[in-house]
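Newbie here. two chains, one complex. Structure please?
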Amino acid sequence: MRSVLNLRAAILSLLIFVLFVAIWHAATLPVEKAAGADPEYAKLLGGGKSSGLPTPAMIGRTIWTNLADPFYDRGPNDKGIGIQLAFSMARVGLGFLCAALVAIPLGFLIGMSPLIYRALNPFIQVLKPISPLAWMPLALYTIKDAAISSVFVIFICSVWPMLINTAYGVASVKRDWLNVAKTLEVGALRKAFRVILPAAAPTILTGMRISMGIAWLVIVAAEMLVGGTGIGYFVWNEWNNLSLTNVIFAILTIGIVGMLLDLVFGWLTRLVTYQE
Amino acid sequence: MHKDFLKVEGLSKVFPGARGDAPLTVFSDINFTIDKGEFVCIIGHSGCGKSTILNILAGLDEATSGLVIMDQREVSGPSLDRGVVFQGHALMPWLSAKKNVEFAVRSRLPKANGVTVEAICRRYLDLVGLIGAEHKKPSELSGGMKQRVGIARAFAIEPKMLLLDEPFGALDALTRGVIQDELLNICAQTHQTVFMITHDVDEAILLADKIMLMSNGPQARIAEIVVNTLPRDRSRHTIHKDPQYYLIRNHLVDFLVSRSREFTECPPADYDPKRPPSVTPGLAAPEPVIPESLLTSRAIAKPVLVNIRK
């Protein structure tokens, strides 16, 4: 039953996609101007060209040429999409890892101690809603390195969901399980790793998944600001080159990579989820 | 039998009143003892503080006053000497049945090697009839099986005393009966000292050597201690045929229905909370309730009826 539904959904998705491409194609077709019009005038209006937006076929060709050679490097402003993605992923990975190293232990502490929770809560509430890009000037001034600054921005944006989810997950571990650990005289460290961590793992991983989603959103903007390398810079650079096909290609790439990252974390979450 | 293995003296629990309300004394001046190898049940209405008493014995809760002495040592905080079977089984859902037991065994024997731990786990899983299902997660087990894992886990640490908080409350009657039999067997084999909360009068008579009756809270007391005078090798299949059974049962039900409330309102004049009275309702009344004449007349009646039909 389920597989039939999946199949029908897949067919519908495909139909929507085909319809979308067809409309796109029709909308970007070169329009023949009415015969007899002044050719000079027509040229001024853009000749036989339409809106100037690329056609699906042009995008197809761009995707092909970019993917055929993803790792070329011809100077600072002309690198393959693979290299740009690698730069972005490395920044996101590094910032995310640092955030996890801070947020998970701190979240444990906050979740286990109502005192620390109350003490830190005002700071978290103020810092959490700040757009991570607002930190950029301060980061650039203090760190004096554009690449590390963008890593810092990733760190600061991915720390909050992980921190809050870890604290919440740890604080809501069932009393019964903690009582079991107490009656078995389980030590603090063993309790943290064998009882609290597995109990809170699904919540923690959900937080990591949210963080990763935000980090991937933010890296594009951050790289547009600091420039140099990365998928965000690629978008901005192609805009400066007035190459809309490459911009659209980059948009698609960002979407697909973001989806894959989310899938990985979704899979990891399922791995640690338990049924009660 | 080691006398007074567990001694509870002057136990009371007072909850501070919420927002200016007067503080609430759930129970006060609770005194009782449990001998080694004895199975004691405690019965009372909700709110009399049974669970709180059990949690204090377990070391998970603190009494407002009074003390608990087990094996000549004061109970302060949880200990591996007292195994607890929780009301809601409290298994860790990310671990299989065996891993749940193993977690307890490793807590008891942190330095033991894998083979020893494995052997202990298997022995206790076998004892509760879970071999074959030991690799299943709790979510894949039925309610009865989950509670069996909980029992195996509590027994596996070989505690000096076992505390059971209404362990069969959530089970259907058939499953409950089977596990009661198993518990009876295991206790007979291991001579375990047990303190158990129950709401089920029949369960108490089947399992317990001594049944403590608690009056209604607040200000609950142990009103009396019913000594179970049925032979110790009783079984679920024959217990209801013993004439003592109904005498004890009626006594317990009477208490729960009316006397538990009356007791709190006006305790008997000679009541001493330091020494709650022991009673033996099973031996109290004279022999059968049905007069001899009635039995014989029925015996004659049967063939007469047959004759009429002919």
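Moderator note: The mean pLDDT of chain A is 90. Chain A touches chain B through 20 residues (CB under 8 Å). Thread marked as resolved.
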